[in-house]
Amino acid sequence: FISQMNFDQEGNVTSFEKKKTELFQELSLQARDLRFQHSTSLIARNNCIILRMESLKAIVTPHSLLVLDFRGLGLEHWLVLELAPQLASQSHSLPFEFRALDAILQHKVNTLRARLNVVEPAMLDTLESLVDPKILSADRSKLHVLLQNSKSLSELETDIKVFKETLLKILDEDEIIEELCLTKWTDPRVFEESSLGIDHAEEMELLLDNYYMQAEELGNKTRELKGLIDDSESVIFINLDSHRNVMMRLSLQLSMGSFSLSLFGLIGVAFGMNLESSFEEDARIFWLVTGFMFLGSGMIWRRLLSFLGRHLEPSVAPLYFKLLLCHLWFWSWMPWQHWN
């Protein structure tokens, strides 16, 4: 058995279950016509339009719309409250299959647009936080959110592409468009209306082309978002490279400073070997050697920075020498007896 929901031209709804064989015989269809092998398809068979839009499976006839396997898909609200009034609308004189296709394709486009409206704001917020130049490292939790949104965006882009290809395949074939005009082959009055200037094939083409253009617009938005992700990724890498370069520069400066201090620190090592000489008798030698060590270390450090092209900001070098002078001033006030 297969569950069905039947909509007539007045918007009346009936739901029931029927055997597949009975459905095939009633609509003069083959079993292969209702296998729904593709997630998105739109074909004409024996004066019926068989379509599938993701979870929605439907058959359009000149007088009714059959929705198959509708239970448990979350479509009940749309089927009862929105689809029935659209089918019952008499605002235009086009046949019933035009109203049915218009309602189903509009539902498909609205679903795709709703998915995009969910993904887009979350992705933009995540990208804005990731490209902040003040951030020294990328937040893994935000990267995980971006990965999930990117995956959802890729799935959405694929669905839009399949939907567009389905419509484009029909728009490229005039015979298929003619076959979709079901009432034209069953109601003789339709031919009279066509002779009066109403071309139903042209109306069907305009209907399909309208939703193709809407899908194309959604596809352009998804491509813009993917391009924004790629640009943001480049900005993130540039930010990380910039901060990494700052840390490498600082590490190099500290290494050169350590080398300079170690080099002139050998003088202090030489005086600390407990070797007797005439220098330890003079109190001024300590300050002379200490000042020479610090000044020599500072000069070597600056020479190394200049040689490697790693100049510090103007405020850093004077600060170094100020600290050196404060150090010498502090120790000059210490009682010399403290060192005996």
UniProtKB/TrEMBL annotation:
Q: Where in the cell is it found?
A: Membrane; Mitochondrion inner membrane
The record's GO molecular-function terms, alphabetically, read: magnesium ion transmembrane transporter activity
**Keywords assigned:** Ion transport, Magnesium, Membrane, Mitochondrion, Mitochondrion inner membrane, Transit peptide, Transmembrane, Transmembrane helix, Transport
Q: How does it sit in the membrane?
A: Multi-pass membrane protein
Q: Name one GO cellular component term.
A: mitochondrial inner membrane
* Annotated InterPro entries: MRS2-like
What does the record list as GO biological process? mitochondrial magnesium ion transmembrane transport
Q: What is its main location?
A: membrane
What are the TM regions of this chain, as residue ranges?
254-273, 285-305, 317-334
Q: Subunit info?
A: Homopentamer.
PANTHER family given in the database record:
MAGNESIUM TRANSPORTER MRS2 HOMOLOG, MITOCHONDRIAL, RNA SPLICING PROTEIN MRS2, MITOCHONDRIAL
**Function comment:** Magnesium transporter that mediates the influx of magnesium into the mitochondrial matrix and regulates magnesium metabolism. Also permeable to calcium, sodium and potassium ions. Required for normal expression of the mitochondrial respiratory complex I subunits. May play a role in maintaining the inner mitochondrial membrane potential.
Q: Please state which protein family the record places this protein in.
A: Belongs to the CorA metal ion transporter (MIT) (TC 1.A.35) family.
Recorded protein name is Magnesium transporter
Query: Which organism does this sequence originate in?
Result: Cyclopterus lumpus (Lumpsucker)
Q: Source gene?
A: mrs2
